[in-house]
Design brief:
The structure holds three protein chains of three kinds. By secondary structure, chain A is α/β, with parallel strands linked by helices. Chain A has one domain (about 15-80, about 90-160): Rossmann fold (3-Layer(aba) Sandwich). Chain A is about 30% helix and about 25% strand. In chain A, the strands form two sheets. A five-stranded parallel sheet of chain A has the order 3-2-4-5-6. In chain A, strands 1-8-7 form a three-stranded antiparallel sheet. Chain A is globular and about 45 Å long. In chain B, helix 3 crosses helix 4 (about 115-120) and helix 5 (about 135-150) crosses helix 6. Chain B folds into two domains: about 15-135 and about 290-305, 3-Layer(aba) Sandwich (Rossmann fold); about 135-285, Aspartate/ornithine carbamoyltransferase (Rossmann fold, 3-Layer(aba) Sandwich), CATH 3.40.50.1370. Chain B is α/β, with parallel strands linked by helices. In chain B, the strands form two sheets. Chain B has a five-stranded parallel sheet with strand order 7-6-5-8-9. A four-stranded parallel sheet of chain B has the order 2-1-3-4, sandwiched between helices. The relative contact order of chain C is 0.16. In chain C, the strands form four sheets. Chain C has an eight-stranded parallel sheet with strand order 8-9-10-11-12-15-16-17. Chain C has a six-stranded mixed sheet with strand order 3-2-7-18-19-20, with helices on one face. Chain C is α/β, with parallel strands linked by helices. In chain C, helix 5 (about 165-175) packs across helix 7 and helix 7 runs parallel beside helix 8. The longest helix of chain C has 18 residues, at about 210-230. In chain C, strand 11 (about 155), helix 5 (about 165-175) and strand 12 form a beta-alpha-beta unit. Classes of the chains: A alpha/beta, B alpha/beta, C alpha/beta. Chains in contact: A-B, B-C. Chains A and B meet through helix 4 of A and helix 1 and helix 11 of B.
């Protein structure tokens, strides 16, 4: 089945490119925030969580010190909840620190319509009042439906609206890569 | 993922997977209840009606809080405050409520089967918040949730339920839920309070409390309905309390660290000795907190089934 | 008016079972036999011939237990609508229970009922009078008056006489008129608050149970009193294995006891209540599988003499309630025949036995001059297609009420035509 899917993928970033992009973003985060003081990373479940952990590791190895990391489940903040036939499974939000007055970097894998980020920001603000919210994404594929812009971007990928961009990560048992799958949404 | 059914009127029709889904969803909602802003917009725009024919501040408040934390609009109806008049059937009243575009009706009623009858008659989802002696599904789910926080698996867990099993919806729902999840259930009480063929529901029947408590992980005490005295179910409260009251000595018969649970409110000195009641008050408070999380989960999952 | 029914299989219990013609003259059975047409035409001129080839020709059925609700609850049923329901089910004689409002404990109520029945003109109505005034179980009703007005038996129906002394006196007193005393056997203390059989299902549903013992202890008491007094005891709607056992033993000892069973008690078990189905709520309640088996055995060996419907109409809104608050009872007249024939199909009863339990046996139990096709008898009869299948559709019932648990059942055995005193009172569409 995996083999079959690969045949229909168009590779956008391989493992090396993913790694390089993350390293660059880690540097950019440190540069913009002038170090790790008052900084926190919050990954959006599920892809963003893994990327947040990788970024934290890079930031710590560059700068030393520790950056608090949290996981955010945005399910309850989705704007299509009332429209769906089936309720999505809820995962736990685990942000074991007070986000108030921190500079929070939200981390996600793909930035598309912006609706997930809108939900994530609502979710964050229900948890406290951060000093600043920034956004780091591995891929920005365009087609925004809300006025949202990423602070850090791994790679801009021009896509058509019905294409399906997928980020595969080792943490989920895949080879690191970003692809466009044919045949629209899965 | 959602519950397949429109309503939650009974534990009997839930599968073990569905019970787990509710408990796991409740895990996430418990986190929400621990936040400073204890509110998420998941049920924004939905209307939940609490329809309580029997007074029950605890259960009603728990559902109300759960619905409000999900951002639903909540309306409370009780026969004294609503237009429920003699002669108007439950169904008539419910249809009126449904006409207010209620998405979910939470029903507490003195008649067994009231929730099921209502569910057949309305399009809204119906949650049974206790129907006569029949069931109280969310109570059992929150009891399981509370047990699971200490005992992650139900297989191998031994639970004693002590008291008036025959007239207890809490006992019935717990017996259904626990046996489905693979726990061993011992029903303990005087023979007058053990209903016919209870063993066929998967519980073992015990009349001797001391014997029944040996080796249990959880002791669930039921509230004795004091008004049942004089109906020949037991001679005196004094004798009942001596035979089936939970004392410190009896707690020691159970496994070390056994959980003591009670759906509340407690008759101190009747089914539970005062010192025992004090020593486990924290679990009762846990049950209250967990009740909100479990009810949030049920409301959320049913909203998707609608 | 002369009618000749030809080509059918005539079953006249104890007298005939085979192909025969039935000749009806002036509302009476004139003759049952072969080649009656020539003689009839010669004597009478015009003869209406009804072809019943391949069909059963039976005496009209006799139901010892119906509730026609009039006076008092006409929104549920009237004597006219109940009668229409009866003849649609093949019943040409019914015994109306006294739990009306007012209770039938007086000549005037009895006469009122008979007058309504004459006006309706569909089936023969035999009122059953109350045992005690107002069915309150305290003072005897004027049983002699009730008898004279037309009551054929006495019963306090759903409010059984709990005081054994009162019951003893009623039995003794009724001896003077040779009237059967009917008891709805239920110990009201044992059944208090109960709304279904006490058993696994009541435990699962959390409903208060009515134990089989609530019936058994009263059956035992009544048999003892019948033995003491020598009265004619008739046990209504026997539902438990214990009752069957005790009646069997009492009959063996020569006690004058007869018993009836209802189609729902041999067709359904307590399982039908699941889902809090108020259409499966009746009193006595649907029992366990073993009880149903015992009822069937009792029917087969003659312990249970009679099949009666306990036709108990309730309006839709009465039944659309919480289970514990809904009234007991179901309509039964229009489903009794196919449910009884199912026992024949199952091999529990022979066809002749089944017919006897609907006709001659009930007539005998209450000494009614009905249930037979003997020459000179009222020409009450029914033509039945034993093999015709149909689906129970309550909306087509003649009864005012539709409360049946058998809706949607695919059954066999259709009433084609019903005659009362030689007049066609029902014809299937």
């Amino acid at each position: 089945m995996m083999q079959h899917e690969k045949k229909h993928e168009k590779l956008i970033m391989d493992g090396h490119e993913v790694a390089r992009a993350l390293t660059r973003i880690a540097h950019e985060i440190l540069e913009r925030n002038k170090g790790v003081k008052g900084l926190a990373l919050v990954g959006i479940r599920t892809g963003g969580v893994h990327l947040a952990h990788r970024l934290a590791k890079r930031i710590q190895s560059i700068e030393g010190g520790t950056v608090p990391i949290g996981d955010l489940d945005i399910t309850l903040y989705r704007d299509d909840l009332a429209l769906r036939k089936d309720q999505p499974v809820i995962r736990k939000t685990a942000i074991p620190f007070n986000i108030s007055d921190l500079k929070v970097v939200l981390v996600d894998d793909v930035l598309f319509t912006g609706r997930t980020i809108r939900a994530a920001m609502d979710g964050l603000i229900d948890l406290g009042r951060p000093a600043e919210i920034q956004l780091a994404v591995l891929v920005d594929r365009g087609h925004r439906q809300l006025p949202i812009k990423a602070t850090y971007i791994g790679k801009n990928i021009p896509t058509s609206r019905d294409e399906n961009v997928q980020v595969f990560l080792e943490e989920e048992g895949e080879e690191d890569r970003v692809v466009i799958l044919n045949g629209g949404a899965p | 993922m959602s519950l397949k059914q429109k309503d939650l009127t009974t534990i009997a029709t839930l599968t073990p997977d569905e019970i787990m889904l509710i408990l796991e969803t409740a895990d996430s909602f418990k986190e929400v209840s621990g936040r400073e802003i204890k509110k998420v917009p998941a049920l924004r725009g939905k209307t939940v009606v609490n329809f309580f024919f029997e007074p029950s501040t605890r259960t009603r408040t728990s559902f109300e809080l759960a619905a409000k934390r999900l951002s639903a609009d909540v309306i409370n109806f009780s026969p004294s405050s609503s237009s429920v008049v003699k002669g108007e059937t439950l169904l008539d009243t419910a249809r009126n409520i449904e006409a207010m575009q209620a998405d979910i009706i939470v029903l507490r009623h003195q008649a067994a089967g009231a929730a099921e009858t209502l569910a057949r008659g309305v399009k809204s989802s119906v949650i049974n918040a206790g129907d006569g002696w029949h069931e109280h599904p969310t109570q059992a789910l929150l009891d399981l949730f509370t047990m699971r926080e200490k005992h992650p698996t139900f297989k191998g867990l031994t639970v004693a339920i002590v008291g008036d099993i025959a007239h207890s919806r809490v006992a019935r729902s717990n017996i259904y839920a626990l046996t489905k999840m693979g726990a061993e259930v011992r029903a303990v009480g005087p023979p007058t309070m053990i209903p016919a063929f209870l063993d066929r529901l998967g519980a073992t029947v015990h009349y001797d409390m001391d014997e029944a408590l040996r080796g249990v992980d959880v002791i669930m005490m039921l509230r004795l309905q004091l008004e049942r005295q004089g109906r020949a179910l037991f001679p005196t409260i004094r004798e009942y309390s001596r035979l089936y009251g939970l004392t410190a000595d009896r707690v020691r018969l159970a496994n070390a660290g056994a959980m003591i649970m009670h759906p509340g409110p407690i008759n101190r000195g009747v089914e539970i000795a005062p010192d025992v009641a004090d020593s486990f008050s924290s679990v009762i408070l846990d049950q209250v907190t967990n009740g909100v999380a479990v009810r949030m989960a049920v409301l959320y999952l049913l909203a998707g089934a609608n | 008016m002369t009618i000749l029914i030809t080509g059918g299989r005539v079953i006249d219990p104890g007298r005939l079972d085979g192909p025969a013609e039935v000749l009806i003259e002036n509302g009476k059975v004139a003759a049952v036999g072969q080649n009656l047409l020539a003689a009839a035409s010669r004597d009478k001129g015009s003869v209406t011939v009804v072809d019943a080839t391949g069909k059963l020709v039976l005496p009209g059925f006799v139901d010892l237990h119906v509730h026609f609700r009039e006076p008092g609850f006409e929104y549920k049923e009237t004597i006219a609508t109940g009668g229409a329901s009866a003849v649609a089910g093949g019943f040409t004689s019914v015994c109306c229970m006294p739990n009306t409002n007012p209770v039938n404990d007086s000549q005037s109520v009895t006469e009122f009922m008979l007058e309504k029945a004459r006006a309706a003109g569909n089936c023969s109505v035999f009122p059953v009078g109350a045992i005690t005034k107002g069915s309150e179980g305290k003072e005897l009703a004027e049983i002699g008056d009730l008898r004279r007005a037309g009551c054929v038996a006495i019963s306090d129906d759903g409010r059984p006489v709990m005081n054994s002394m009162v019951m003893r006196r009623a039995m003794e007193y009724a001896l003077a008129f040779d009237m059967p005393v009917i008891d709805h056997c239920e110990d009201l203390h044992l059944s208090e608050g109960g709304c279904m059989n006490e058993g696994l299902v009541s435990t699962e549903l959390g409903l208060a149970g009515i134990p089989a013992a609530a019936e058994d202890v009263m059956v035992a008491r009544n048999i003892a009193l019948a033995e003491l007094t020598g009265a004619r005891l008739h046990l209504a709607h026997v539902s438990t294995a214990g009752s069957v056992r005790m009646v069997r033993e009492a009959k063996a000892r020569g006690i004058r006891v007869t018993a009836e069973a209802c189609p729902h008690h041999f067709s359904l078990t307590e399982e039908a209540v699941r889902g809090f189905n108020t259409l499966a709520k009746m009193n006595p309640p649907l029992r366990a599988w073993q009880d149903v088996q015992a009822i069937k055995e009792g029917l087969a060996d003659g312990t249970i003499d009679v099949i009666a419907t306990d036709h108990a109409p309730h309006a839709g809104q009465d039944k659309q309630r919480e289970f514990s608050d809904a009234p007991f009872g179901i309509v039964g007249l229009e489903t009794a025949l196919p449910l009884t024939l199912a026992l024949v199909e199952e091999g529990v009863l022979t066809l002749a036995q089944a017919v006897a339990k609907l006709t001659s046996e009930p007539a005998k139990a209450f000494s009614l001059a009905k249930g037979s096709l003997a020459p000179g008898a009222d020409a009450d009869l029914v033509i039945v297609d034993q093999q015709q299948g149909w689906e129970v559709d309550p909306s087509r019932f003649r009864s005012k009420s539709k409360n049946t648990p058998f809706a949607g059942w695919k059954v066999k055995g259709l009433v084609l035509r019903t005659f009362v005193a030689g007049r066609v009172v029902y014809e299937s569409a």
